[in-house]
Amino acid sequence: MDVDVEGIIHCIRQGDENGVQMQLQEFNKEYAQCFFFDAEERDRRKQRKLEEFRKNKVREYDSDSDCEEYNLEDRGLLLRQNLAIVLVRFIRTGVKCRLLRVCLRSLRILSRDKRILGPLVTDNALLTLAKLAGLTTSDATDETTDPDTDFYDNILASLAEAKAQQSHDDEDDGDLEAGDQNEAFDEDAKSDISNANSGDVDSLSWFGSHRTSINEMHRGSIHQKVLERGRRDRRESKIEGDEEEEEEGESGEEAQRKEAMKVLCNVVYNSTWAQERFSALSLMNGLTEVLSNSINCSSPSSVQFYELRLMFLITALRPELSTQLQQAGGVSIFTAALESCLEVQWKDQNECILDPKAPPISLEASQRVVEILKILFNITYSTHRQEPSEADAALYRHLVAMLRLCLMRKCLLADDTDELQGHTVNLLSALPLQCLDVLLVVPLEPDSKQCNGVNMDCVHHLLMFMENRLDSGDKIKEKLTPVLNLLTESCRAHRETRQYIRKYILPPLRDASQKPEEGCTVKSRLIRLMTHLDTDLKHCAADLIFVLCKENVRRFVKYTGYGNAAGLLATRGLLGSGSKSSSSSTQYSSDSDSDTEEYRQVKDRINPVTGRVEAEQPDPMQGMSEEEKEEEAKRLIMLFNKLSRDNIIQAVGVDSEGKLVPMSEIRDKSLTEEAKSESENDGEADEAQKD
What is residue 102's predicted lDDT score, i.e. its pLDDT? Predict the structure, then answer.
């Protein structure tokens, strides 16, 4: 369905607000669940479709249908561009509340497209949206706030020009060969992709004057974005038509603020220029003030989630603003917001009451909590290695006490629980390690997990969370590395934590008939990660097991096999070492790792490389004479020398630091040391003769 921009403009000029509202509602209903995809995605779909036709040999690829599709996309983009310009101008003229909400909803749909953000990223537009969202009380100044007849006439003229140009292009396209058409489309797609990288600056330049025809920017890049059906935010569980009923429980101002906030979220997310202007226009201060004032409300409004979402976006996309927020007391503000959302009841200064009979966290509360956790991560991620002041340490411990609740409480939906725990782990890994002791100082309950009298309930939940993430094949690095790092650092810092986790992951070794990486245990799944293609992930998994082995090389190889352990040992320079890493500053207890009776019985038959008992293999030289053995050895030496000369293989050895280096370097270093030693000895001999 095309947007009747001309009809909307005529209704505005005639003062027919009902007509404007009716047409915008039709647009909103049609495109409520549509999202914009760029030309690259469309070209990938086109290529898949072409391959399917060729594979099935149904018919030749129909380029005429593609041409028609592109023309429709071209016209739709042009209409949406003009509609955005008209609506931004229209909402500044004093629109009634209900019509204003409809206009903002249309702008929210339009703001999903990066290529039409020009009218929405000017200072006047941002200030107008910020005022409607309640972030500022200042008026957006413009050269005129009254309906401008020339302005609307220029829009109508540009649309008429576009129609004439399209008709002319259609006539020209009819004379082109199919091959020429495909080539032209390919070139347009390339220019379209390059233009997309600078869409914000280009959009701003053409919007600088209301008198500039939209077609001047539009020519030369006809393949833009495509509206398609997409997955909506899980919070928006209702269809767009039900939003009218939803708004009945909201005040007009609240519904208006929510729509304006949604538009701002889209604009800030899609435009780097809007992110820069957000800071320059001091909208960050207004957003912080609004959130601070809404924390203490007993029943937060539906706008608060989008306020939190906007704060997360701006702190994630502009690191300097996250630093600014931290210096302005952002940790205290959002710690209080987290306490309010969770409705925390305190038993002690750093101990929250965890009621096992408490209902699950509601959908709305869990979504707000997740946004708060993400904001806190953005403003604290650099504090992990820092030594906090006494006041900051007290604040972080207060926060960690609430994060314990986030780990142990459940939400209505299992996916929400996993998401909540995931962001909690991310935040815990960003906080100073010495402040995490709050997780362990909770008194023991009758059903608590414990190790040497220390409460391990929170550690157990972290282990369960890690085990669940081990089974997720999608984005495994992003999902696993935070919890692996957190467990590793906790094991280094707390002896009881290490002992508890070691019993869970590395129980006493009894069965050596399988390779360490075979099986479905937590240990075997972690060891499989030690040879993963992703370097960060495999190092995180290896570090955890290495720390559980008290960074003892012999014990590490015993549990993982030398083949799996070689990567970490080579990285740390421990290949030639049989004991603990000399570079480690962690002080471990001196208790030994006693072997089980089952392990001692097969210990001598275990292959140290594979880590399992191997079947006895026949002697390949059995029955050969000594002369035949010598000839075979010479032949092997000649083959190795040939491979080495052709640079197919390279002989390596372990240097004095335990690292793998080419044998030539070891030999050269040895010869250098010998020559130096001989010269020193000669010097000493000469001195002795003089004496």
Answer: 93
Contact 362, 409 (CB under 8 A): no
Domain ranges of the chain: 5-229, 282-430, 440-614, 646-691
- The token pair that represents 99 in the structure block: 């019509």
Q: Say what angle helices 457-470 and 414-430 make with each other, to 10 degrees.
A: 110
The label of the residue with tokens 């800030």 reads: 268
Torsion angles phi and psi, residue 208, rounded to 5: -60, -25
Closest-CA residue to 82 (of 14, 163, 146, 195):
163
Indicate the average pLDDT of the chain. Answer: 78
User: What are the backbone dihedrals phi and psi of residue 652, each rounded to the nearest 5 degrees, phi first?
Assistant: -125, 160
For 592-641, the pLDDT digits (tens) are 667 787 777 777 778 888 888 877 778 778 888 889 889 999 999 999 88
| Cα separation of the two ends of the chain | 107
Cβ 352 vs Cβ 402: under 8 Å: yes
Look at strands 606-607 and 34-37 and give their pairing: unpaired
- Alpha-carbon distance of 160 to 374, in angstroms, equals 48
pLDDT for 361: 93
Pairing of strands 34-37, 226-229: antiparallel
Taking the C-alpha atoms of residue 13 and residue 156, their distance in angstroms, rounded to an integer, is 12
Three-class SS state of 455: strand
Return d(Cα 558, Cα 509) in angstroms, integer: 9
Residue 289 near residue 245, CB atoms below 8 Å: no
Half-sphere exposure of 223 (CA within 13 A, CB side): 23
- DSSP string of 370-394, one letter each residue: HHHHHHHHHHHGGGTTS---HHHHH
Q: Write the DSSP assignment of 208-233 as a string of letters.
A: T-TTS-HHHHHTT-----EEEE-PPP
Which alpha helices (DSSP H) does 444-561 contain, by range?
A: 457-470, 476-493, 495-505, 522-529, 535-548, 553-560
Helix (H, G, I), strand (E, B) or coil at 348: strand
Beta strands in 546-654 (DSSP E): 606-607, 612-613, 652-654
